[in-house]
Task: structure prediction
Amino acid sequence: MRLLYSALSPFARKVRVLALEKGLADRIGLEPAAPYQDEAVRVLNPLNKVPTLVTDDGEAVYDSAVICDFLDGLAQPRLIPESQPDRHRALTLEAAADGMGDAALLVVRERMRSEGEHRQDVFDRQLKAIAAALDLFERASLSTDRFGIGEIAVAAQLGYLDARRVIDWREGRPALAAWFEVVSKRGSMVASDPSAG
Result:
């Protein structure tokens, strides 16, 4: 299999962490690609986004949630629960983390605009979404023992907030900060850390 990815993408990191946790990383070749710019990606994914996984059969699989679901079905242990209510809780946590990631990407892009092009309303709206998601994660009683899809998604996005200095998210969120301190030392998190390479 091949994973077209960007090292800084929190969505690609989520996929990589899941693959590492499941012992599948050695079956996936990593191919750096520039999202939105690399036309080789568009041939596989009409949205021209990373991550995009190419299976051994040549099928393109995207986006990150679908890739994680595909990879989770290839080997044990299952990191996406199969039965309810655990399944919808884990997937809702993943969706909240991914949504926070989308908002963080917009904040980063807004900061890259020149001063006159800056849209404060977009900026403020995304920062509110990020803060609300962070508050949700603070209350979520995230597990350090079980590192399933919800926890993986949250950890990948928190790493992105740090890497891009999007927001100082630890202030007022001691449980989340303590949880991230523990899980960021997992082998899968260390191996996928874009600042380590």
Observations:
- Residues 86-112 form the longest helix (27 residues).
- DSSP finds eight helices and four strands in the chain.
